[in-house]
Every structure is written in C-alpha cells, then in structure tokens.
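Structure first, sequence second, as always.
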C-alpha cells in the first residue's frame, strides 16, 4: 500500500501498468481462455446443428415450442418470443441464451476473482504493486481481458451459427454480443464482491449466488406474462433475451448492460479506495487467542477454506431448484399428447405422455447433478490452487503428511458436494410440495440422491487423480462433464450412436430418476471407481515434487 501511495505522490496514476498487466494476463491464460472460446463456440455449433436437423420439420418445431410455453420451459428457457413461428434461430435465442450466459458468467467470475482477490490472497499482487503499478490497474486489466475474450467468443460463435444454420448474420451477432455483455455484468459483480470479502472462494461463491438470484428473478418475471414482465428486467439475463433476436430485433437493451458494467466498475473502484490491501470491507471475525484442539488439523483447515463457497452455492442452487419445483405440477395437463406426436421430445423425456412430469423431473435431476459435479471439479482444482499459491508448501513444512493434507481437502470437498446434491434434489421436492403436495415422495427423491452421489464423486476423484499425477491435465474433468451432459441430455436423439459412446459418462450408469429402480451394482461400481481414483490421487502426490502444479 505504501508503494502505491508513493507512486501517486510522484505523479503516478492508479491505472499505471494496466496494459502491461493485460499482456501478462493474456499470456498467462492463453490456453485457459482458448479452451473456453472453443467450448462455448462448440456449444453454439452443436445446438445449431441439432435444432437445424432434428427439429427441421415444422411440426417438430411447433411441438418444441409447445414444450417451451410450459412453466418448466419458461424457467429453463426464456420469455417466449416467436412461438408462432419457432424456427432454428428463435429456438436458439429462446432456449440457449440462459445457458450461454451461465457458462460465460462462470468464466467471467472465475477470471475476475483469479486476477484480483486470489492474487492478493496469495501475495503475488503485493510483489506487483512493489513495482510501478497503480492501485486499480489489476482490476481494470482483468475486466479489459474479460471483455476481449467475450468479444472474441461472440464473434466466433455468431459466425459459427451463420455457417452451420444459415442464420441471419445481424441477429446472430445480436444474440452472441448480448449474451457476452450480460456475462461481463456478472464479472463486474464479482469485482465488487472481491472488495467486500478477503477470500477468493467466498467472492466466487457470493458471485455465483448472485447469478442464481438473477436466474430466479428472470424466471419469475417471465412467468407473469408472455414476453416478460417488469420483474424480468431486474435480471441481467433478461437484458440479452429482451433483444428479441430472430424475432423483432432491438439493440437498446445493450445499453442497460453497458451502463450496469460502468456503474459496477465505478463502485468497485470506490470500494477498493476505502479498504486496506489484502483485506475486505467486511472485517474478519476476531478469533480466540488459542485455537481449539478440534481446529488443529488439516481437515479443520479444509473446512474453513471451503465453507464459504459451499454455503453460497447451497443458497443459490437451493433457490433455483425450489423455484423450478413450484412450476411442475401442471406439466402433464399443459403438454397433453405432445410426446406421442414428437419422437424427438419422447427421446428426451420418455414416450409415455402420462409420465411426462417424471421425465422432466429426471432432466432436472441431471441438471442438478451436473451443477454439483461442477462444484466438485472446482473444489478439486482448489487443491491445485493451494499448491500453486505456495500455501500447501507452508502447510507441509509442519508435521503433516502430504497424503493427510490432500485426504482432508478431498473429504471436505466430497462432503460438500454431497450436501450440495442433497440441497438440489430436495429443493425440487419441497418446491413441488409447497404447491400441491403431489408427485414423487421423499423416499423416491432419496433414491435419486443415492444414485447420483457416487457419480458426482467420480468427477472430484478424477480431478484429484489428475492433480496427483499430471496437475496440468486436471482440466480434463471439465471436458468429461460437458461430454456427460450432452450424452445424458441428447444421447437419445442419435439413433446411430453406439451405446459404448455413453459408457465413459458416470451419469450413464445412474438409473433413470423416478422411472427406474436404484441399481445397486451400478452404485457399487461407481463408488469403487471413485475410491480407486482417490487412492491414485494420494499415491500420485506422494511420488511427485510439491511446487510442480
């Protein structure tokens, strides 16, 4: 802090060194940002291709539109523009924006926290600010690079949509640019929260909770009336959807996103000017002079590190899935015989129209399990972050075995993933009960929880095993999760897809929620797989040098 003040007294600026930091961030994260670009553009390509081929028939298109007009469709999709002529472009905008904004928001939040709060927490930012670097330079550099990568993703994705689906160029750009700007809003929110809390994990969890609240607000607002209500406009997700791409394009909602980003950047700057370096505005609670004996262990340290993101994730996902559950009781009546008339819908939700609600509940459970698997992967990567920041080396300088340290981190992460899965599953049940008390009972939801739990732990175990043996390959867990979600959600649409292509997905081995009995052999097999991977993680960490992550 003294170095910054002295630089300002000598005529320096709070933004001194910004462009040098921009170049450094681009060089440091070129692979990470490249993977995000390819992944999001790949989603656009896949979704465009699937809609343009599987739902090219007008009857199939209107059948899909009927699904999206249901309460669940509105929650998972959008406000419902262009339902009378549900073409590929309209479907892309109505169904894809929410999930694209989710993916880009996660990227934006992690990027901003990584290059601001996490750098302060690790001590690297202090070294940077010992040079000629202004107080606000790291934050501004992180937002500049975030804006650039989102712009690149928007351009590449729009061109992909045009090339694969022959969609209008202007509308394609409107959809991708609107989604990117909405995501940058959440990145700016993360920057504000990085000034509030002193811990990177807490900032990440709080930012994700803000997205969950925005999702609920948007869904509730869109449920009030077709096209969205005044409540919808309180959510940044709606600002991209309200551009009405491919239906009645309008550009002015972009100004709301730009204004929000500018205001949040100003707020973050003001807050940063009123806090001490490496501290948050919320003061840390004063603890005891001597730690309790129960806290003098690696597992206690792991719990202290992970409790904030776990708490915020449970809050955000719990609200989102509870809201989803309240919309389900009338699905059967509203959909009618759509499943019989549309084979593509039947392939996803089942071919029994009388059990459509159960099929849709099964899809919700897959969404929930995928979100919990993502949390597990993030916590697995957090262990790598501890080593990269040098904190693991300090911990292991004490009389603590490295296997004990890693096992403690993984135990807390595994219990946290299990708790998050329980919140996700039972929140849907409570939402349904709150409306009419019908549907599957608590026992059936418990069977779903038990079935998905070992599959979720496999993702944590795989990330840990890769960290133990090949730290730089730990990101493979994300690729497996993306593949598993696509296969689990859309695998039934591909008649020529061999069954063996699904075996690699842990979710493939989980019994269909609410329509099949819990498979205990699969439960044992997945549990054994997770156990073996956890063991490999411990062995791998013992065999390699610390500090090579």
């Amino acid at each position: 802090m003294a170095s910054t003040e002295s630089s300002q007294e000598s005529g320096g600026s709070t933004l001194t060194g910004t462009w040098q930091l921009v170049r450094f961030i681009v060089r440091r994260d070129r692979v990470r940002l490249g993977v995000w670009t390819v992944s999001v553009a790949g989603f656009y390509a896949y979704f465009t291709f699937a809609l343009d081929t599987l739902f090219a028939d007008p009857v199939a298109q209107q059948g899909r539109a009927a699904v999206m007009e249901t309460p669940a469709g509105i929650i998972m999709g959008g406000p419902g523009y262009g339902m009378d002529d549900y073409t590929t472009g309209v479907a892309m905008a109505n169904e894809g924006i929410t999930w694209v904004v989710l993916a880009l928001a996660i990227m934006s939040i992690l990027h901003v926290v990584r290059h601001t709060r996490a750098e302060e927490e690790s001590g690297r930012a202090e070294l940077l600010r010992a040079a000629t670097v202004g107080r606000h330079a790291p934050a501004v550099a992180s937002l500049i690079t975030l804006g650039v990568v989102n712009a690149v993703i928007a351009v590449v994705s729009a061109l992909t949509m045009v090339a694969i689906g022959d969609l209008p160029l202007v509308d394609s750009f409107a959809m991708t640019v609107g989604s990117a700007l909405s995501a940058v809003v959440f990145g700016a929110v993360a920057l504000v929260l990085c000034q509030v809390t002193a811990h990177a994990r807490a900032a990440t969890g709080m930012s994700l909770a803000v997205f969950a609240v925005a999702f609920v607000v948007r869904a509730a607002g869109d449920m009030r009336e077709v096209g969205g209500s005044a409540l919808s406009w309180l959510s940044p997700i709606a600002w991209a959807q309200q551009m009405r791409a491919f239906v009645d394009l309008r550009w002015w909602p972009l100004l709301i996103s730009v204004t929000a980003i500018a205001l949040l950047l100003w707020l973050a700057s003001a807050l940063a000017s009123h806090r001490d370096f490496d501290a948050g505005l919320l003061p840390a609670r004063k603890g005891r002079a001597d730690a309790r004996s129960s806290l003098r262990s690696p597992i206690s340290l792991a719990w202290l590190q992970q409790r904030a993101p776990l708490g915020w994730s449970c809050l955000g996902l719990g609200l989102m899935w509870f809201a989803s559950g309240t919309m389900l009781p009338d699905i059967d009546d509203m959909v009618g015989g759509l499943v019989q008339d549309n084979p593509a819908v039947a392939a996803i939700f089942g071919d029994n129209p009388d059990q459509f609600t159960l099929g849709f509940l099964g899809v919700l459970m897959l969404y929930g399990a995928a979100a919990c698997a993502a949390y597990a992967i993030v916590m697995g990567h957090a262990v790598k972050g501890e080593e990269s920041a040098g904190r693991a080396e300090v911990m292991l300088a004490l009389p603590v075995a490295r296997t004990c340290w890693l096992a403690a981190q993984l135990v807390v992460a595994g219990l946290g993933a299990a708790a998050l899965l329980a919140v996700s599953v039972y929140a849907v049940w409570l939402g349904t009960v709150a409306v009419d008390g019908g549907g599957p009972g608590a026992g059936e939801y418990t069977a779903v929880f038990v079935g998905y739990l070992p599959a979720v732990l496999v993702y944590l175990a795989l990330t840990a095993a890769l960290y133990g043996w090949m730290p730089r390959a730990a990101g493979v867990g994300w690729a497996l999760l993306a593949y598993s979600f696509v296969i689990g959600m859309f695998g039934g649409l591909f008649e020529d897809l061999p069954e063996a292509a699904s075996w690699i997905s842990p979710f493939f081995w989980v019994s269909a929620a609410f329509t099949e009995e819990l498979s205990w052999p699969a439960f044992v097999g997945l549990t054994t797989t997770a156990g073996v991977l956890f063991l490999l993680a411990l062995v791998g960490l013992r065999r390699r040098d610390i500090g090579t992550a």
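Margin note: The radius of gyration is 24 Å.
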